[in-house]
Amino acid sequence: METIKVAVQKSGRLNEDSLRILKDCGISIDNGRDQLRASARNFPMEVFYLRNGDIPQYLKDGVVDIAIIGENVLIEKGADIPVVEKLGFSRCRVSIAVPKNVEYNSINDLEGKRIATSYPNTVLQYLNQKGVTSDLHIINGSVEIAPNIGLADAVCDIVSSGSTLFKNNLKEVEVLLQSEAVLAVSPKAGAKQHKILEQLRFRLQSVLEARNNRYVLMNAPNESLEAIISLLPGMRSPTVLPLAESGWSSIHTVINKDRFWEVLDQVKKEGAEGILVCPIEKMIV
Ligand SMILES: Nc1ncnc2c1ncn2[C@@H]1O[C@H](COP(=O)(O)OP(=O)(O)OP(=O)(O)O)[C@@H](O)[C@H]1O
Ligand SMILES: O=P(O)(O)OC[C@H]1O[C@H](OP(=O)(O)OP(=O)(O)O)[C@H](O)[C@@H]1O
Ligand SMILES: [Mg+2]
To answer: Where is the ATP phosphoribosyltransferase catalytic domain (predicted)?
Structure first.
């Protein structure tokens, strides 16, 4: 049977969320902690557990058809590999930082300076764009310690909460790019694999939509209905059903997870009560 080969990070920050999103797509994978390869039981998919940093090359070579990978790694190593879905987890940015006590006015301050990084291509492209030449030191981990041990004047690495920079007395001075986990596709994937990919994307989109929204139910006196409904978004429009008690209705709708607190505040003021907020498992728009 034709399958789609998907690369997932073997261990690290992306592993758990990658496997969870596949599971939420209804794909059951035999647990492959110690295996390098596992098959899905109910979907034509094989999972390859690989190092994040190696995945762009596997995509280029067509060893795997698709991958769940940090966009930052793809940009660093995988020019020309198309991204078909942004997956909404492992959000971070790639930034340049310098010691807190150093005066920094612009990127020109890095002319001739030593920058330690695991992202040489990304930094080089950025510096070239700005017409600045620096001396790059490529290191694979614990980059933020470099200025403290006299190895570099600046670093370029991943920043998320900023706590690693803070602990190492560094300040973020340039943001080169924003990143999140993405679904990337090998330029060598065949027609059969693209067909399976479309099935997977349909499922992923319904999972991602569901994660971004909440199902909200509330009760309201009929005289407040119009005012409340005007405040509510919905997939098409809110559902209104009569309650057993006359003069009251139940209103059901879908609200984006980033907006529902604000909307709930407003509808409460208009007389809504008994408000329930529920997760949605799948959402097909
Ligand atoms: N602090 C962070 N917060 C959010 N996302 C992050 C953070 N650090 C890394 N990431 C994202 O997760 C990806 C994997 O990071 P992780 O540190 O697990 O792997 P790695 O050590 O770079 O890779 P490898 O699998 O090759 O050993 C990164 O490429 C980036 O996209
Ligand atoms: O802004 P923060 O929230 O502190 O996150 C940023 C840190 O997270 C990553 O390291 P990780 O913990 O993955 O360790 P690693 O260097 O061993 O990959 C990254 O390399 C930074 O050092
Ligand atoms: Mg890391």
So the answer is: 51-205
